[in-house]
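Q: Joint fold for the lines below.
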Amino acid sequence: MLKYTIRRLLLLIPTLFFVALIVFSLAHAAPGSPFDAKSNENKPLPQATIERLNHLYGIDKPVWEQFALYLSNAIRFDFGSSFVRDRPVIEIIGQGFPYSAQLGVQALLVALMFSLPLGVISALRQNSIVDYASLLFATVGTTIPSFVIGIFAIYIFGVTLHLLPFVGWSTPSHWILPTAILSLGAMAFLTRITRASMLEAIRQDYVRTARSKGLGEQVVIVAHVMKNAMIPVVTIVGPATAGLITGSIIIEGLFSIPGIGRLFLTSIIQRDYPLIMGTYMLYAVLIAVANLVVDLTYGIVDPRIRFDR
Amino acid sequence: MATITTSPGQTRALELNILARKQRSLWRDAWFRLRRNKAAMVGLGVVAVFVVIAILAPFLAPRDPIQQTTANALADPFWGSPQYTNPEYPLGSDQLGRDILSRLIWSTRVSLWVGFIPVSLIFLIGVSVGMLAGYNGGWVDNLLMRITDVIYAFPDLLFLFIIMAMLRNTAAGNLGGGLVLMFVAIALVNWVGMARLVRGQVLSLKEREFIEAARAIGAKPRRIMVRHLFPNVLAPVIVSVAFGIPSAMLAEATLSFFGIGIKPPTPTWGVMINEGFVVFSTTPWPVLLPALCISIVMLAFTFVGDGLRDALDPRMKT
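A: Joint structure:
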């Protein structure tokens, strides 16, 4: 297991290298520099100033040289300075990260809190009204995109009823709508998986054995059915987390939350290369680590899976 | 090409057998199951209406979708209070005085293109690469797996964001108002998933007896792939395509909503939401109506996709 973990972590290095290479080339393939008069049409900068800025930020060098420089700095955790904000990228990201982390963790907790009971209940009462309602919820929640649901929610709870604020992240009441909307997708997805895997587990022979040796219904459900039904669910939490990480970009944009998702959005629109690279690499690492953690928990919850071989 | 020779008697027996037992292929069975699935049929109906609207857009739309008449800006839809409605704009107008109904109708066209073209590209590239990699193995397979490792490391939505944001002001990004770049970007991000799916299917199929039999009678790899493997991987591929269409449409809507998708003035539901957002808290309809259209079309395609999955592979039913 340790060997497997180390190998997976080492594999991250070439993958991240390629991610960096491709994103870097894409960012630099765009015509012009961020300081071009074209970028700020309202007040064009004089040519000499643009050249000086280009020189200052090293954009006048050939792209491969810039990339080599970027990599050698990145290894020392120096991700450069933002063109627009004029502060180190790492500082900007450090400031935004707590917001995104809080949003993501809250959404994951809410999703788990509702989806697990919902999935279990609808499996135990298959084809009941509760079951149909939760299936309908699961379909709608996974199908309708979060920004569309967010728009409806803002209209109903914010604009019409004036119940909840929907811009920013300043007070706990600001947290409610973004957290709820972000959690919906994962919640629907997890409900579906929990239900399916409960139904699968209920039909197993060991459940019949447990019943036939006279165990109480509660013990059978909790100790035999649910214990086994949770294996697929645990493995789905990982992809669901990855979904939450990317989904938070859209939610942060929609609700103007000052986290890294919004930083990413503004940086690509402002063509702020260092910040684009910084935020994108952070997302790539987060998702890779989320996937690794899932694969490892897979082995812990299901001893039948072995990594060495 | 090899044929199996039979005596006249055998042929007759075969014919009788076929006549007596009405032939039911996988596809007939699947269609039968699909037809009994109410949600899928409703979804199919909605998709059909949507396609017809997209094709007939120029005849259905009452007004020019991009013509601005500022004097008639921000009219309410017909169910609003009479002082704010305008009979010439049945679903109201946006802040530039453009007819929302016409814009919604024209948007279906863009959505249809975005739904079908990238998915066709994904189908073509994914199926051919996947079959080659699965059947031949070798360097194609190695290359595919390495590309997959890298592409899977890219959070796909973010990658789309970057491609669109960086390249949309280049010459390639201007083709068709950003449509062409969108097609390529969506295909680029998604073909690997299809290739992986097909490869996996081919890997397990090629060990089966009917492939061995085909090889034994001397069929060439090309023929085996086209005639024997392709029909057998088609079912999961169709399901994947059915889900690929709405997800491509969603990608367009999301990108356009954030202002880095299709370029205005081309109307799309995402662009409409983006532009209407400025006046959302006072005049919600220019945003709510396209949001509603997106929801309906997404649900319809998902119902069809779910139905197809259940019909083509009943074992996978959840």
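Q: Anything notable?
A: Chain B has one domain: 27-55+99-316. Chain B has a mean pLDDT of 83.
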